[in-house]
């Protein structure tokens, strides 16, 4: 699989495995058990109609910006197994919070893209301290490997504090024009703010750069969101408000009903 503009809008789901061995929150669950749970979740969202998923080791928190060797190893094996079992689903890789590790894993397992959430350009501060731009290191690894894995970058992720005060439209332009991101994840704290951000960024960048909603999609707003956005990655809402929960199959179904309606409306414009 690969991401094609003709496939837009895309509905992706966040797959966030149980804490892997070696992480602070792992309480003895084996890696095989972690894999089995993730495989069942991906199977469920495939049957529900999702186009794909982003696999993220969110439950390995707390983490610094550079991933540990064991995290990279476990995520490589899990991502490979999911890609093998579900070859027709789009696969994104997000290793918290290490874009270089994400690219290495994605290139090795032939994933369809990586998402770099903290941080591709600029600088942020959060619970683990400063997060520095990774664009130079990611670009250099792409060059060394000859990698064609697309890089989708979050622009000013809303859960961390941005340093520097650059406007999101300017940061988006910077991510594409100076740091060579292939697509962007953008969004605000409300549906209205997210829609305005989309229009502002689209006006600045033109029509060629894919724009995905970074956060905040739900069963109530997905029809409106997909009138414009090229795709979404849903997590919190289908997990009943807590990212540590498993995906609720009924919530996933409701969400995809909204996606299908949005596609119908979009195609009839």
Automatic annotation (TrEMBL):
Domain of life: Bacteria
Protein name: BtpA family membrane complex biogenesis protein
InterPro entries the UniProt entry points to: BtpA
Cross-referenced Pfam families: BtpA
Organism: [Clostridium] innocuum 2959
């Amino acid at each position: 699989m690969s991401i094609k503009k003709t496939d837009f809008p895309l509905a992706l789901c966040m797959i966030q495995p149980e804490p892997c061995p070696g992480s602070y929150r792992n309480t003895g669950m084996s890696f095989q058990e972690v894999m089995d749970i993730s495989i069942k979740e991906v199977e469920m969202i495939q049957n529900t109609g999702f186009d794909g998923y982003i696999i993220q080791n969110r439950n390995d928190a707390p983490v610094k910006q550079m991933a540990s060797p064991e995290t990279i190893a476990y995520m490589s094996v899990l991502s490979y197994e999911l890609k093998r079992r579900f070859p027709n689903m789009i696969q994104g890789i997000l290793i918290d919070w290490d874009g270089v590790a994400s690219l290495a894993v994605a290139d090795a397992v032939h994933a369809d893209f990586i998402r770099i959430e903290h941080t591709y350009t600029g600088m942020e501060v959060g619970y683990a301290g400063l997060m520095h731009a990774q664009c130079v290191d990611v670009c250099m690894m792409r060059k060394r490997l000859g990698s064609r894995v697309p890089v989708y970058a979050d622009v000013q992720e809303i859960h961390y504090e941005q340093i520097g005060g650059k406007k999101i439209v300017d940061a988006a332009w910077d991510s594409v024009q100076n740091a060579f991101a292939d697509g962007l994840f953008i969004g605000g704290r409300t549906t209205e703010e997210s829609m305005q951000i989309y229009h502002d960024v689209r006006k600045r960048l033109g029509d060629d750069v894919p724009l995905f909603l970074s956060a905040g999609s739900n069963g109530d707003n997905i029809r409106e969101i997909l009138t414009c956005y090229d795709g979404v990655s849903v997590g919190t809402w289908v997990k009943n408000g807590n990212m540590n929960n498993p995906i609720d199959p009924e919530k996933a179904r409701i969400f995809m009903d909204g996606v299908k309606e949005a596609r119908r409306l979009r195609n009839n414009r």
